[in-house]
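Q: what sequence does this backbone want?
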């Protein structure tokens, strides 16, 4: 019995879960990244140039400039600096605008102490304050390149000490992504995706559709919880899953306003019903499965208790944003979390020999055949920023360099149960497959499936854990 409990503690299986929840964008619905990155960049740049009078040069983009985009970057808004942080908060790499700082400049600017806002950002994995912004998902990331180019442009025209372009950037984001934008054909983003869905969206692989049905047949309650509004959600789901997409899920929650869906306690937002994608009256409680808007994890959990007849139903949530999905679902709701990390595709490693002997039906499909070539895939590995997982401490000349984990990497092992490159990577596994989970007493690479990132693995002995 003790051995069984120990195994459960160090491993994770979908068979043990009562409810399985999914984020939509970049989790269930994967995008053609090069095309969507360019569209997002253009939609923000267009607004800054036409509405706010910024330099027209921002509208042209050199082919390789998206290499600047790398998840985990933090923008110091007032200074115009972008930072890559080590797990202890020291700065591993930085750029002013798009221009990388040298080791000497890094030490001169930041020294070897933790970055001034690290305490705030790391405590709640918060994405934004008045002085910084954390880029942690693909909807934001092209904005990092645009902001960096804005800094370059402002420096050219004027010797800036402090920057105040951020309010305009926020206005550009709100203009393109506001709730009514899809319906009103407003901005550049939604009209374009509506008119050319195939250009931007990848259809859901048959293996994943079969797997979703399998989960449901096994008695799991399937949840879709997305911050996208219901009209955009419908477009995506019909395109990637088909017109019968609602049959895959017991409960669909749109405009969930994550992370507030998990974190706004005790001032939770009520659930609302929908009519023709318009939000209706607020509900006092959630009484039955269906399609809802807004809401909160506490009332959802009460419904799950009712549906399962259990006092403590076990929920797992799949998502791609540490800030909106993984951290809040784990921290506030104590759900299991599966982090969808496409960066694992750009950091492939050969499968260790001992797993080669596993029977075929026990192996997940690792999608090397369907993964786009790396030169077509922005963000997987940025030449300018290096590995998402580890980096060298900037040493003085001739000083020995030490490899350390990035702050992003530490968040993964702290708040995720497991991390996978895509749903397709596990869709062919039996539902009772047991994954090694991230835990304080296991190897820091344990929870990556199907294999750890090469950067971590090859340096596991030399990576310093701070």
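A:
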């Amino acid at each position: 019995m003790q051995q069984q409990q120990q195994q459960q503690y160090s491993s994770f299986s979908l068979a043990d879960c009562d409810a399985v929840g999914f984020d939509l964008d970049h989790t269930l619905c994967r995008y053609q990244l090069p095309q969507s990155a360019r569209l997002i960049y253009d939609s923000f740049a267009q607004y800054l140039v036409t509405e706010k009078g910024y330099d027209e040069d921002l509208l042209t983009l050199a082919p390789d400039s998206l290499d600047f985009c790398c998840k985990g970057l933090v923008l110091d808004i007032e200074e115009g600096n972008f930072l890559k942080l080590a797990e202890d908060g020291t700065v591993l790499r930085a750029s002013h605008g798009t221009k990388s700082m040298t080791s000497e400049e890094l030490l001169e600017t930041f020294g070897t102490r933790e970055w001034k806002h690290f305490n705030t950002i790391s405590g709640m994995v918060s994405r934004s304050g008045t002085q910084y912004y954390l880029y942690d998902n693909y909807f934001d990331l092209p904005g990092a390149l645009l902001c960096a180019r804005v800094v370059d442009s402002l420096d050219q025209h004027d010797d800036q000490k402090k920057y105040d372009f951020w309010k305009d950037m926020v206005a550009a984001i709100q203009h393109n992504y506001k709730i009514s934008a899809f319906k009103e054909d407003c901005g550049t983003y939604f009209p374009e995706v509506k008119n050319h869905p195939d250009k931007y969206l990848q259809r859901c692989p048959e293996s994943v559709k079969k797997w979703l049905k399998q989960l449901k047949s096994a008695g799991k309650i399937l949840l879709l919880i997305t911050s996208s509004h219901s009209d955009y959600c419908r477009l995506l789901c019909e395109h990637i899953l088909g017109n019968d997409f609602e049959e895959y899920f017991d409960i669909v929650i749109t405009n969930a306003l994550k992370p507030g869906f998990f974190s706004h306690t005790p001032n939770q937002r009520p659930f609302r019903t929908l009519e023709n994608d318009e939000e209706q009256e607020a509900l006092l409680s959630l009484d039955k499965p269906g399609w809802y808007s807004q809401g909160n994890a506490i009332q959802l959990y009460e419904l799950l208790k009712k549906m399962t007849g259990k006092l403590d139903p076990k929920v797992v949530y799949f998502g791609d944003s540490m800030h909106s999905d993984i951290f809040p679902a784990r921290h506030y709701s104590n759900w299991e979390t599966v982090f969808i990390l496409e960066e694992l595709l750009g950091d492939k490693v050969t499968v260790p020999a001992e797993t080669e002997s596993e029977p075929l039906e026990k192996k997940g499909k690792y999608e090397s055949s369907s993964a786009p070539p790396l030169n077509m895939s922005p963000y997987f590995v940025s030449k300018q920023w290096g590995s998402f997982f580890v980096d060298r401490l900037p040493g003085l000349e001739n000083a020995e360099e030490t490899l350390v984990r990035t702050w992003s990497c530490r968040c993964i092992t702290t708040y995720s149960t497991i991390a996978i490159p895509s749903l397709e990577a596990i869709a062919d596994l039996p539902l009772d497959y047991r994954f090694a989970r991230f835990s304080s007493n296991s190897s820091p690479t344990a929870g990556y499936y199907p294999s750890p990132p090469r950067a971590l693995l090859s340096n596991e002995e030399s990576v310093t854990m701070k």
